[in-house]
Amino acid sequence: MKHDHAWKATEVAGISAALLKWYDANRRCLPWRGDSLPYLVRVHDRDAGYNAPNVVTPYATWVSEIMCQQTRVDTVVTYYTKWMDTFPTIQSLANADPDQVNAVWAGLGCVLHEHGLNLDIDPPCRYYRRARMLHQGAQFVMEKFNGDMPRDVDSLKTIPGIGPYTAGRLVACIHW
């Protein structure tokens, strides 16, 4: 028995519309999506007619994508807001001292901290590869792209720390 599994254009459009409608009502509010406090609540739990009030930038999306690698979203929110308060632009991150970058990142991605175990150990958790790559990436964007995030996958992949997945996410998530 042969089955035709090809989707008709009307079926694809209907499924897409239904998924987007569901997402609009059920997504979690997150700072990198332009939402205001409180974070981590569902949109349907907010006042009727709520719309994210803040502009979503390519830089903010990039930071969130890197922070969310191997780290729970509810953990990332606090670090993300601290990071963006300290380094609100690519230029501010590019110009930062590496020690300042590490200090703001400290604890993110550390299994002990993520499980609430803030032990006084020597050496403390110092897994800063993602922070270092963001810092180097920001310097690269300032030097090669005059501070503007490129809009295509191939150019994004030239930035230190951005591979095919992150480049694809940035292109897909940003409304240039």
Distinctive features:
Endonuclease III, domain 1; globular; 51% helix; 176 residues
Describe it for me?
The chain has 176 residues and is an all-alpha fold. The chain folds into two domains: 1-54, no CATH class; 58-173, Hypothetical protein, domain 2 (Endonuclease III, domain 1, Orthogonal Bundle), CATH 1.10.340. Helix content is 51%, strand content 0%. The chain contains nine helices and no strands. The chain has helices at 9-26, 58-67, 73-86, 90-94, 98-105, 111-114, 129-145, 153-156, 164-173. Helix 2 (58-67) packs across helix 3 (73-86). The chain is globular. The model has no long low-confidence stretch (mean pLDDT 89). InterPro entries: DNA_glycosylase (IPR011257), HhH-GPD_domain (IPR003265), HhH_base_excis_C (IPR023170), HhH_motif (IPR000445), MIG/MutY (IPR044298). Its cofactor is [4Fe-4S] cluster. Its EC number is 3.2.2.31. Belongs to the Nth/MutY family.
Topology record:
Elements: H1 9-26, H2 58-67, H3 73-86, H4 90-94, H5 98-105, H6 111-114, H7 129-145, H8 153-156, H9 164-173
Helix pairs in contact: 2-3, 2-9
TL;DR of this structure?
With 176 residues, the chain is mainly α. 51% of the residues lie in helices and 0% in strands. The model has no long low-confidence stretch (mean pLDDT 89).
